[in-house]
Structure to design on (477 residues):
């Protein structure tokens, strides 16, 4: 994969993050913090549905794609479990006296139920259709599908309020649902050839059983990971005021730089490594990638912390705490990005049960820390609890992967995570009192990182230029 292809894949996360940074401040001026907090719970609940309905089929598709003798047959059998599960869940939802709107928004409203169902279904289709583009290496189409729903949301939510719609949870939920549905329409057109071929392919009970055998344990681990990544929001809903959840959700949304690094790297890394393993390539570069990724994550964290006070220029006064939460809320996606390399050996060796137990242990730590810290420190306590839990997740996965796969050097990564936890906590507590001191600290750390990694960066740029010059135009090795 050459630099042009990587850049094409990066367009989606970069564009999505940029539009997100425009959308969040705009929404904060139109909608109360409580409504923004409720939509954060909606997104969290929908991510749970993706895991339950998917049954790990998406991970099985990624794992088996390059080795599959018939990719159309594989796609058909991958799509069957989530489609059947989604249909069953929606029918059960309609038949039972259960209100998702009451659970998420505190109001039993039939229209809101419809928007929730539409948003959930649209996200499920988006996940699997975008995977088709990614695995067929259609980078620009993949990126366009990521940007399109964010652009629709940016335009639709403020336009609806300006046209006279109430600035409430229902309007915001409708904007989210319709924007995601627009992404499904685009993806369906982009993947129409693959979908038609999959429709004509036969059903294979043996293949379906194999996919579920691999995917279900991963789905259980993903379910535990969902709890690990979302418990902070549910604990805030339980133990803090509604507006605190809105402030926290907005701060987490502003952590776009961290999510950007995670999104770009996750898009490229796992499929690429599995291809290396399948082709029996030399895996020595993995250690160097781990070191470079540690430096990149640390640099993104320092620069984002330095820029955090600028968020006050774009937000109402109700969100004054956002800049001081940013360094902590950025840590979970950055730590997870490091885990993508440090713990990838668990997926390579197919140790799904180990992944599940590690995630459950980290989830238990998150729940205990959140229960302890949130009542005392509010949003800052939630940010610290989830960051500590992700740090534990990173250490456990990396140590186990070292035992069963490659013994990657990890001291620098552990030191960087520990330092970020300490400094992020200090900034949340004392950043308002000592802004100049922290600004100087972030600047010094950024310069130190640039000096430490200057040779690695120069070597990476040189290697990229050579690779671009020697690879075929399609970017395939």
């Amino acid at each position: 994969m050459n630099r042009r292809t990587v850049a094409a894949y990066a367009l989606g996360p970069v564009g999505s993050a940029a539009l997100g940074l425009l959308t969040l401040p705009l929404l904060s001026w139109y909608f109360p913090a409580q409504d923004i907090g409720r939509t954060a719970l909606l997104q969290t609940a929908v991510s749970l549905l993706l895991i339950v309905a998917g049954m790990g089929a998406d991970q099985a598709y990624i794992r088996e794609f390059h080795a599959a003798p018939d990719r159309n047959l594989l796609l058909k059998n991958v799509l069957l479990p989530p489609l059947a599960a989604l249909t069953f869940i929606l029918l059960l939802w309609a038949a039972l006296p259960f209100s998702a709107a009451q659970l998420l928004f505190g109001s039993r409203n039939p229209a809101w139920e419809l928007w929730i169902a539409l948003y959930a279904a649209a996200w499920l289709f988006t996940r699997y259709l975008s995977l088709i583009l990614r695995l067929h290496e259609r980078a620009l189409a993949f990126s366009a599908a990521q940007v399109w729903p964010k652009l629709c949301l940016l335009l639709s939510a403020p336009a609806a309020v300006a046209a006279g719609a109430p600035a409430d949870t229902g309007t915001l939920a409708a904007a989210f649902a319709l924007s995601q549905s627009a992404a499904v329409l685009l993806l369906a057109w982009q993947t129409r050839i693959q979908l038609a071929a999959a429709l004509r392919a036969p059903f294979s009970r043996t293949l379906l059983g194999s996919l579920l055998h691999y995917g279900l344990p991963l789905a259980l681990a993903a379910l535990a990971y969902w709890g690990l990544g979302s418990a902070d929001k549910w604990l805030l809903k339980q133990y803090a005021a509604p507006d605190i959840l809105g402030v926290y959700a907005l701060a987490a949304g502003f952590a776009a730089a961290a999510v950007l690094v995670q999104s770009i790297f996750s898009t490229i890394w796992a499929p690429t490594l599995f291809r290396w393993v399948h082709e029996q390539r030399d895996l020595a570069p993995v250690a160097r990638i781990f070191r470079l990724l540690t430096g990149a994550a640390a640099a993104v964290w320092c620069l984002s912390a330095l820029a955090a006070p600028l968020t006050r220029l774009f937000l109402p006064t109700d969100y004054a705490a956002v800049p001081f939460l940013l360094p902590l809320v950025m840590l979970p996606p950055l730590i997870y990005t490091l885990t993508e390399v440090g713990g990838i050996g668990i997926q390579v060796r197919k140790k799904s049960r180990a992944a599940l137990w590690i995630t459950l242990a980290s989830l238990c730590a998150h729940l205990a820390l959140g229960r302890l810290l949130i009542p005392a420190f509010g949003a800052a306590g939630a940010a610290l609890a989830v960051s500590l839990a992700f740090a534990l997740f990173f250490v456990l996965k990396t140590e186990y992967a070292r035992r069963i796969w490659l013994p990657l050097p990890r001291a620098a990564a552990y030191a960087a995570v520990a330092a970020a936890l300490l400094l992020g906590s200090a900034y949340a507590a004392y950043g308002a009192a000592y802004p100049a001191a922290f600004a100087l600290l972030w600047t010094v750390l950024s310069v130190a990182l640039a000096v430490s990694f200057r040779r690695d960066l120069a070597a990476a740029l040189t290697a990229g230029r050579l690779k671009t010059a020697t690879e075929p135009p399609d970017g395939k090795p």
Q: What stands out?
A: Residues 217-477 form one domain. The radius of gyration is 22 Å. The chain has two domains: 20-203, 217-477.
